[in-house]
Structures are given as structure tokens and as C-alpha cells.
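A.,

Following up on our hallway conversation. C-alpha cells first:
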């Protein structure tokens, strides 16, 4: 079965960095677009970034452009999100997702606070 397991969240000070990791299993990772979303209680789910199968095509949400970098390692079936220059408004639960079939990980909490 399809599984997506995120890790790497935590508490970081404003201006700091974190790298999120999503390990995929149960499907051919290299055959699918992958995405990172985030959701904060009381707010709508927000697309953070998405990446094509080979990594050639990448899109970012406006709020993270220039600060976050999505990447993937198809040999390791792993998706990454490098987050730099973190702000308090980046505090959220971050989810790895495979849009085809609507598969989601359990989420990892990122808290940006001094």
C-alpha cells in the first residue's frame, strides 16, 4: 500500500532553517508528481511546492518563493523540502502528498518562534 512518512519538523527560531523529508513506499516513486502542502488550524490548506517526476518542473506557493526548495531523490524514493529564512507565519503542519490517488502523509509540525 502507498505510504508517505514525513520527518524533520521541529521548533526553529525566525530566520532559521529546517529540512523536511518524506519517504515514500508502496509505489513507483519516480512515476509521480509530488507535493508539499501545509495547513494551520483555522486556515485553508496551502500548496507549498510541487515537483514533476524528474524534477524538471517545479512550482512554489507565492509565500515561500525564494526561501524554500523542493527536491527529490528517485533512487531513494524520497522527497525533500529545504526551508530557509523561516518566519513565524511558516508555522504549520507540513504534509507530503501524491496528488494522483490523493495520498497524504501524517504530517510534521514546524514551529517558528523565538
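Then the amino acids I'd put at each of the 114 positions:
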Amino acid at each position: 500500500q502507498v505510504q508517505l512518512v514525513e520527518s524533520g519538523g521541529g521548533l526553529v527560531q525566525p530566520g532559521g532553517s529546517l529540512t523536511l523529508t518524506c519517504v515514500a513506499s508502496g509505489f513507483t516513486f519516480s512515476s509521480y508528481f509530488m507535493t508539499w502542502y501545509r495547513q494551520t488550524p483555522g486556515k485553508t490548506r496551502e500548496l507549498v511546492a510541487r515537483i514533476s517526476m524528474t524534477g524538471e518542473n517545479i512550482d512554489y506557493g507565492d509565500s515561500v518563493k525564494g526561501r524554500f526548495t523542493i527536491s527529490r531523490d528517485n533512487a531513494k524514493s524520497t522527497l525533500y523540502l529545504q526551508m530557509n529564512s523561516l518566519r513565524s507565519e511558516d508555522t504549520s503542519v507540513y504534509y507530503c502528498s501524491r496528488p494522483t490517488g490523493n495520498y497524504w502523509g501524517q504530517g510534521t509540525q514546524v514551529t517558528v518562534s523565538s
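The CA atoms of residues 48 and 107 lie 13 Å apart. Curious whether your intuition agrees with the design.

B.
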